[in-house]
Design goal:
The chain is α+β, with helices and mostly antiparallel strands and 138 residues long. The chain has two domains: 5-86, F0F1 ATP synthase delta/epsilon subunit, N-terminal (ATP Synthase, domain 1, Sandwich); 89-133. It is built from two helices and eight strands. Strands 1, 2, 3, 4, 5, 6, 7 and 8 form an eight-stranded mixed sheet that branches.
């Protein structure tokens, strides 16, 4: 069994990350998932939250939103709708985004299930950005 796995994060516009990892943690649609080298194959839907990739050179964190994660062989591929490096997130802008998302969810985001889901996803994304800008997991 290998000591590392390859972790790639791909968005519609770019390859956001491609590196060797000893451990990867991400938010799946049904909860937090941790992956180590030698993990069994899987395919799951991504949630909205933090992605942490630990490797020989330290730890890399990103906020990912939507998409899929697939483990095949020694490669973990995350096909994300969006991926933002944690160190590029402005804390004040993230807090403002969270306040707007909260206001929309409470005040007039709509009553349809689709509108409610959209408002809750915006809240989860904003919350993850605030947590990432403060250097902690969401």
């Amino acid at each position: 069994m290998a000591n590392t796995l390859r972790c790639s994060v791909v968005t519609p516009s770019s390859v956001a990350l491609d590196q060797e990892a000893t451990y990867v943690s991400f938010q799946a649609f049904d909860g937090q998932k941790g992956v180590m080298p030698g993990a069994s194959p899987f395919l799951t839907r991504l949630g909205t939250g933090m992605l942490t990739v630990n490797g020989a050179k330290g730890s890399t964190s990103m906020v990912v939103d939507g998409g899929f994660a697939q483990m095949q062989g020694d490669t973990l591929t995350l096909l994300a709708d969006t991926a933002t490096a944690a160190d590029s997130i402005d804390a004040k802008a993230a807090v403002a985004e969270l306040q707007q998302a909260n206001a929309k969810a409470l005040g007039g985001g709509g009553t349809s299930p689709t509108a409610r889901e959209s408002a809750e996803r915006a809240q989860a994304l904003a919350h993850a950005k605030v947590a990432a800008s403060r250097g902690r997991k969401s």
